[in-house]
Amino acid sequence: MSLPQAHLVDDDEAIRDALAWLFKSRGVSCTTYDCAETFLAAWTPTLSGCVILDMRMPGMSGLDCFDALCERNSTLPVIFLTGHGDIPTSVHAMRLGAEDFLTKSAPRDALLSAVDRALVRDARDRA
């Protein structure tokens, strides 16, 4: 049986490395992408797990990437993780169906809990 899969999209290499280590230490495989365009190029309808999206990145933003996933009818749960969150943006993302919207300063346990919920939702939806 394969490990649950997180797909982390963030332009900050230090964030990608730290979170990939954190997820792997908790038994969650993590594939990292340095931008939304790279992730979308790798996306397929059979991709499973969850997506953790940075909100602000050069090129396509996290919200733009989320919109592209919605247009592709992706069922992957999406968690936004941002250093630049505001209430209107978080409400917009949640109304579109995001699993969660967290700031990068959120407690580690809040992120891990969101990822666990997203992975359970994805496994349930695929069953």
Structure characterization notes:
The chain is an alpha/beta fold. The chain has helices at 13-25, 36-42, 62-71, 87-95, 108-126; strands at 5-9, 29-33, 50-54, 78-82, 100-103. The protein has a five-stranded parallel beta sheet, sandwiched between helices. The mean pLDDT is 92.
Give a topology summary.
Blueprint: E1 5-9, H1 13-25, E2 29-33, H2 36-42, E3 50-54, H3 62-71, E4 78-82, H4 87-95, E5 100-103, H5 108-126
Parallel strand pairs: 1-2, 1-3, 3-4, 4-5
Which residue ranges are poorly predicted, with pLDDT under 50 across at least 5 consecutive positions? none
What kind of sheet is the major sheet?
A: 5 strands, parallel
- Based on CA inertia axes, which overall geometry fits? globular
Tell me the span between the first and last alpha carbons: 15 Å
Order of helices and strands: EHEHEHEHEH
Query: Which range best describes the helical content: under 10%, 10-25%, 25-40%, 40-55%, 55-70% or over 70%?
Result: 40-55%
| Helix-strand makeup class | alpha/beta
Gist?
This protein is of the alpha/beta class and 127 residues long. The protein has helices spanning 13-25, 36-42, 62-71, 87-95, 108-126, and strands at 5-9, 29-33, 50-54, 78-82, 100-103. The relative contact order is 0.17.
Features:
alpha/beta, 19% strand, 127 residues
